[in-house]
TrEMBL record:
Pfam family, one: zf-B_box
Protein name, entry field: Tripartite motif-containing protein 35-like
Keyword Metal-binding appears in the UniProt entry: yes
InterPro entries according to UniProt: B30.2/SPRY_sf (IPR043136), ConA-like_dom_sf (IPR013320), TRIM/RBCC (IPR050143), Znf-RING_euk (IPR027370), Znf_B-box (IPR000315), Znf_RING (IPR001841), Znf_RING/FYVE/PHD (IPR013083), Znf_RING_CS (IPR017907)
CDD domains (UniProt xref): Bbox2_xNF7-like
GO MF assignments: zinc ion binding
B box-type domain segment(s): 81-122
Length: 379
């Protein structure tokens, strides 16, 4: 058997399911004992709900309602969880003690333990406490939303970190590629000079060795002919003696051993002396030092160059806009606490520009200048 709600079967006096319900002439029903107790406290026999006077002091029993209530109680006892039943009186928990902040039954309400306590029906108390608890959740929900927003921001920052990583890695590799290319070309240039010197001096030695070989051959021939003349009979020897002496005298003798001289060997001092310094000196023509590097993490409406030394505005100014309307800005990556510092700033064709110093990076305390070169002292 299904019922719309328990309130339809509850006595408006005791707030419990009807027990021996009686019906008045006004059609309102009450528990028999509850009505008698009510009438004992009142001078007239009136209805507790509509205040209409009852024509009978002993109202008739509402049998249909009693049977319905008994069926409902039986069904409720079968379905009511143990937690909704009073452990002391085995009655259904219908009230909420505001003093003790706990559900109680009707018997508990009349007991000495809850004397002078305040009560509310379970439904009302539950709704009030639900509203109160729901209000207490508002700060938590705000914090939850804030945490979700922070998580979203952190995800975006993590993505930016990834993008910055790949972008920076590409630029680092590009710069090192330039340096590698320079070193490769520098190595090839120096190796080419070394090979040319080696080939030149080796060829010179080959020429000298060929000349010596020719002299060896001539000397060997003169010695052979002279020795053969020495073995000839005396008459033949004497007849050929003068010619043999002239032949020996015509052969020049090497006065001293050949000297290589300072330019004979590879000039290692030229190729190896201060090698790395000379390479570094040549490399300085390729690289350029900039004392002030712009910070890509603190830019507004501008696009930085790859070397972080210059920038351009994201959008071109319209004809109606004044140059002063440009709010693009960028900070340097290095901060100074003291000392004197000077820079040369290239402003291009811009007639109006700003360059300055601020004590707080969050403040745009720009100083407008009218010259390119500036010297600043920080105290």
């Amino acid at each position: 058997m299904a019922f719309q709600s328990e309130e339809d079967l509850s006595c408006s006096i005791c707030q419990e399911v009807f027990k021996e319900p009686v019906v008045l002439s006004c059609s309102h029903s009450f528990c028999k004992d509850c009505l008698r107790s009510w009438w004992r406290e009142k001078p007239t026999q009136e209805c507790p709900v509509c205040k209409r006077r009852s024509s009978r002091s002993d109202p008739p029993l509402n049998r249909a309602l009693r049977n319905l209530c008994e069926a409902y109680v039986q069904q409720r006892e079968q379905k009511t969880p143990e937690e909704q039943v009073c452990r002391v009186h085995s009655e259904r928990l219908k009230l909420f003690c505001l003093t003790d902040q706990q559900p109680v039954c009707v018997v508990c309400r009349d007991s000495k333990v809850h004397e002078d306590h305040r009560f509310r029906p379970i439904v009302e108390a539950a709704q009030d406490l639900r509203d109160e608890l729901d209000k207490s959740l508002l700060p938590l929900k705000k914090n939850l939303q804030k945490a979700k927003d922070l998580t979203k921001e952190f995800v975006e920052i993590a993505d930016r970190i990834k993008d910055h990583f790949y972008q920076t890695a590409r630029q680092i590799k590009a710069e090192f590629k330039k340096l590698h290319q320079f070193l490769v070309e520098e190595e090839e240039s120096r190796m080419k000079a070394l090979r040319e010197e080696e080939e030149q001096k080796t060829q010179r030695m080959k020429d000298k060795m060929a000349a010596v070989s020719r002299e060896i051959e001539a000397l060997s021939e003169s010695i052979r002919a002279t020795e053969e003349q020495l073995r000839a009979p005396d008459v033949s020897f004497l007849l050929q003696y003068k010619a043999a002496v002239e032949r020996v005298q015509r052969c020049p003798l090497l006065e001293e051993e050949p000297q290589l001289g300072p330019g004979g060997l590879i000039d290692q001092a030229k190729h190896l002396g201060n090698l790395t310094f000379n390479i570094w000196t040549n490399m300085k023509r390729l690289v350029q030092f900039t004392p002030v590097i712009l910070d890509p993490n603190r830019v507004k409406d501008v696009v930085l160059s790859d070397d972080l030394t210059s920038f351009t505005f994201k959008e071109k100014k319209t004809d109606q806009e004044s140059p002063q309307d440009d709010v693009g800005s960028v900070f340097g990556s290095e901060e100074f606490d003291s000392g004197c510092h000077s820079w040369d700033v290239e402003v291009g064709d811009n007639e109006v520009w700003a360059f300055g110093v601020t004590t707080d990076p969050s403040e745009e305390g720009w100083v407008r200048l009218q010259r390119v070169s500036m010297e600043m002292c920080v105290n």
